[in-house]
Amino acid sequence: MSVFTQVKSLLSYLNQTIIGQEHLAQRLVMALLADGHLLVEGAPGLAKTKAINTLAKGIDADFHRIQFTPDLLPADVTGSDIYRPENASFEFQAGPIFHNLVLADEINRAPAKVQSALLEAMAERQVSIGNKIYPLPELFLVMATQNPIEQEGTYPLPEAQLDRFLMHVTVDYPAADAERKILALVRDEASGSASAPGPEIDQATLFTARKEVLGIHMATNVEEYLIQLIQATRQPLSYGEQLDNWLEYGASPRATIALDRCSRANAWLDGRDFVTPDDIRAVAHDILRHRLLLSFEAEANGVTADQAIDALLANVPSA
Fold it and tell me: Is residue 147 part of a domain?
């Protein structure tokens, strides 16, 4: 079975288990292929936790969930040195961050020190304790969730740190047909009906898939379109006064890299060996949503980041 077929079977397995959240399932697989992390925002009960748990069952990877709370400490995430009185020495006790897939549940409930410890581990792929550095697993993906409903007692992530997430995915309520399928699935599980096993893809296959994604061809004119989209977020006046009035700060080079990797992954999942402008547009909202800082005027008028991205895509000519 080819690498492409195995990954597509993983995506199919996610869609069969996480009903009504096809976009989230695709973005999880895309994050695996692009070697990045996800920030997922949505109301409670939309299968965010189940999605990454199901993904872990479909691949050869261990999974750990961290419930973020206001009293959490950085060491509760990264681990710490533990004193052993029997030999008067310190021994490093690894924290839950040392897993392949990590769910940072309700990340905005933890204080800034804890958020920084997690985000540093995400960016550096290592943890520093004392004078020692401990590398994280080669296969490492963090899915952090935010609850947009409750704002009391939360600590919003700083805009500069949000940039470390590959994508910011928003999830909404499932449609009526999907809701019926959810009820049927829950009844089957309650009655003891065995669900179909996951594909159990090994890590070597995932690393091979990443190499294939990086090998996807991107023509010079398509790459130029990608770059101009990012440049337009920094120099919006070149594309109209409205866009200039809406954007305060543009996207960083991390956005350029993320847009490149995810557009390649989108083309690969679509079974093509080349990137088109449509691939870039398909992932643009999730790549840029958390990286654009809107002006006071835009926020006062109820303009959202998605609307600003729509304007970008409408005004920047494609290749």
Answer: yes
Helices 277-288 and 305-315, interaxial angle, to 10°?
A: 150
Number of domains present in the structure of the chain? 2
Task: Tell me the CA distances in angstroms from 122 to 57, 136, 159, 269, 275, one per residue in order.
Answer: 22, 9, 16, 25, 27
Q: What angle do CA 196, 202, 207 make, to 5 degrees?
A: 130
Rounded to an integer, what distance in angstroms lies between the CA atom of residue 29 and that of residue 8? 9
Residue 195 lies in a domain: no
Q: Domain residues for 274?
A: 215-315
Distance CA 226, CA 233 (A): 12
Determine if the pTM surpasses 0.85: yes
For residue 209, being part of any structural domain is answered with no
CB atoms within 10 A of CB 40: 26
Strand bridging mode 79-84 / 247-249: unpaired
Question: Which of 302, 303, 311, 289 minimizes the C-alpha distance to 23?
Answer: 289
Q: Are residues 123 and 30 in the same domain?
A: yes
The predicted-structure confidence for 232-284, as pLDDT tens digits, reads as follows 999 999 888 999 999 999 999 999 999 999 999 999 999 999 999 999 999 99
Strand blocks (E) in the chain? 38-41, 63-67, 79-84, 89-94, 101-105, 126-129, 132-135, 141-146, 167-170, 247-249, 293-294
Phi, psi at 219, each rounded to 5°: -65, 155
Measure the N-to-C terminal CA separation of the chain; round to a whole number of Å. Answer: 35
Considering the domain architecture, whether residues 184 and 233 belong to the same structural domain is answered as no
The whole-angstrom distance between residue 132's C-alpha and the CA centroid of its chain comes to: 29
Residues in the chain: 319
89-104 pLDDT, tens digit per residue, is 888 899 999 999 999 9
**Does 307 share its domain with 238?**
yes
- Are 131 and 268 part of one and the same domain? no
- Contacts of 89-94 spanning 24+ positions with Cβ under 8 A: 90/130, 92/129, 92/132, 92/134, 94/134
Q: How confident is the model at residue 24 (pLDDT cuts 50, 70, 90)?
A: very high
- Output the pLDDT for position 150: 67
